[in-house]
Design a protein that fits this description.
It comes from Pedobacter steynii. With 139 residues, this protein is of the alpha+beta class. The chain folds into two domains: 1-45; 47-129, 2-Layer Sandwich (GMP Synthetase, Chain A, domain 3), CATH 3.30.300. 31% of the residues lie in helices and 26% in strands. The protein has helices at residues 48-71, 109-120, 123-129; strands at 12-15, 22-26, 29-33, 79-89, 92-102.
Amino acid sequence: MEKKYILTEPLVASIAEIKYQTKIEWRNGVLLSDEPVSLGGQDLGPDPYTLLLSSLASCTLATLRMYIDRKEWTVPEITVQANLFQRIVEGKLLTTIERAIFFNQPMEAEQKDRLLKIAQSCPISKILKNEVQIIDDVF
């Protein structure tokens, strides 16, 4: 089976001697990730949980904007709040992500329901809701 990658080039992340500060290089620049001060970092960038939730939020917003624009609806602003929590259920770690979508204007229930379905179909939602494999190599 041939692999069809989503990214043209893989992102590259590295860490040097600054405690927990990670440099993430992507096709157009560099992003810093860090841990909060309470965990020994300097909080100079989003932590890994924030990066994960940011992927979901930005994908949700972009997917909704594409749909709203295609329908030619007037929705000037959309906001997403996201958080997660974990607990052990039947001996397994269960992670629950909560996503709240705000359209910041009055909207009919039917339109909101349709937009919720669109949000739930964004590519990152689909990844997170389905089985994910991680294939590791060490060089």
